[in-house]
Amino acid sequence: MSFRRGVVRQSKFRHVFAQAWKAEHCLDDVRVTRVTWEGPLCAPNPKFIAVIVEAGGGGSFLVLPLSKSGRVDQTTPSVCGHAAPVLDIQWCPHDDNVIASASEDCAVKVWQIPDEGLSSPMTEAAVTLEEHSKRVGILAWHPTALNILLSAGCDNLLCIWDVGTGELVYRLDDAHPDLIYGVSWNREGSAICTVCKDKALRVIDPRRGTVLKVREKAHEGSRPMRAVFLSDGKILTTGFSRMSERQMALWDTQDLSEPMAVQEMDTSNGVLLPFYDPDTNMVYLCGKGDCTIRYFEVTEEPPYVHFLSLHSSKEPQRGAGFLSKRGVDVNKCEIARFYKLHERKVEPISMTVPRKSDLFQGDLYPDTAGLEPSLLAEDWIAGRDAPPVLVSLSGGYTAPPSKQRDTLRNRPKHPSRGFTPSSQREADTPTAMPATATRDPEGERVATATVGPEADGDGGREKREEEQLCEVLAELKALRTLVLAQGQRIEHLESQLARIEDGDV
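-> structure tokens emitted (505 positions)
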């Protein structure tokens, strides 16, 4: 079923104006990586922009302030801790200073970027996650649960990690018979959709490790596909037809037998990367090697997907980064912003809806997902789901200081994947610091303090012993919570097994 472009309808996004920024506001002399991996290669957030760049050895990526413009000096420090080229980078949705990277060296690393940016090359990651046996090319943070990160590698393996402990919590090694092309969480983080080299679209419950729905040959072409979950539970895929024409399709997860809509576009070879904005229900398609960015609006009424317009430029893109809604300029009615990668330049492109009024346009900016997570990692592991915590963009959005002490939390660690987060390293230093209060996994406040050199004598010793006792109690409570969560998981699996043996499933 094809959908028409010429139908006149009522929509505030019918006239979205795309405008590339002036040359003086671009980033120049950025040596964008030449890796052949079909990925965005760029990740912006309201504080920073990260770009995977060429490295003489190993793999590295730049992290620059979002306000940076002009020439980027070749001596600019980068994140360079991988032993092979970096393939994917993703900012944590719950801390604008935490970024994960995946590489051909089979490792996933999580980095904590200082508020002021990098002053020297960063080689030591806060967390290193090692389970894959082949290169890792896909990362996806859980949209609502703190510290949950998904990785997919060329070993056909899906791993789900608790970054706070460095622990592998779920491993899905038999769901895909071939190379995984793309993974996307649904809005609550209760399910994922994947596309694979076997041309199948799958909907998977990651905690149970079960495939809920499968659509064979979602696109019949042999070129890579991509998929993204929409906020209403539908799935949008991009791929190729049997005649190598690029396609986009919309699927209802309740019935994958036939797509709700299909659009055939052109015969270019570039894989179409879909970028979805849940606030406006718009989808932007950006192909590597293309000179255009197409954008569409998804509605509840047929033909469901409406072509809006496209942005064309003379130079093809090598990748593109999509800025989260918290970073756009609401005073200029900017509803989206891309960072287009050229061979040696990063060019911002703004999508705006022109309005005559200077007032905040509430219809363009519904409340959007904020930094506050809805769940802790152990809550999600125990089976809970929750929608994102929303914030208003009225008056613009100001990114708060990093909450690194709370993001990579000092919880019991997997013995084979232990690491020391920066918050603990800070607590181990002998310099004086004020007392702080953190939350243990049960939500209770536990007082902790770092004692300076001036605390000596019996009083200082008693104070240190009291602090150590508080730390031990906090760790015991965290361990108890973890044991209870694992117990619930085991009980749930045993009940499922019993039902299968009784023939109820």
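DSSP finds four helices and 34 strands in the chain.
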